[in-house]
Design a protein that fits this description.
The chain is about 40% helix and about 20% strand. It is an alpha+beta fold and about 170 residues long. The longest helix is centred in the first third of the chain and has 16 residues, at about 10-25. The chain is globular, with a radius of gyration of 17 Å.
Length: about 170
Amino acid sequence: MTDQVGREPQYDVFADEFLDHAEDGFYNAYVDRPACLGLLGEVAGRRVLDAACGPGLYAALRELRRVLRPGGALVISRPHPTGDWLRHQGNYFDLRVIEEIWRRDWQVRYWLAPLETTCAEFAEAGFLIERLLEPRPLPAAATVDPARYHRLASEPTGFIAFRLRPGP
């Protein structure tokens, strides 16, 4: 069932709960969000949009490219495709939808797509990859969860982040 703008009601609840979780959740507070903020650089006096999205967003990327100010950049984080593939197996190159239940009984549906698909969508939308980052946990994470910190300091964390600039 969807609301008047086509959203499933669970996503409104998910968004509110995720916002609370993002403040001190291990991956958000110590891995992914700090990496994205680092890719943003100085943003004082500039607009920053913090939104969750996934693969298959060519139209959204084109619109973001269209409205991006001259000299602006787009920073995107997504699950690392090899991490998804290791968990779900199958053909790495097949585009497919995964449905999972995450903590707090969050029902999540998202696309599995290889890295080349993500990069092709960026290019088709008119972006060039200025920088790619595979985030590592902040040192402060060692006091929160030492075992997870030491494991993720030497292996992929499950995220990949991009700083994109408009192409010619």
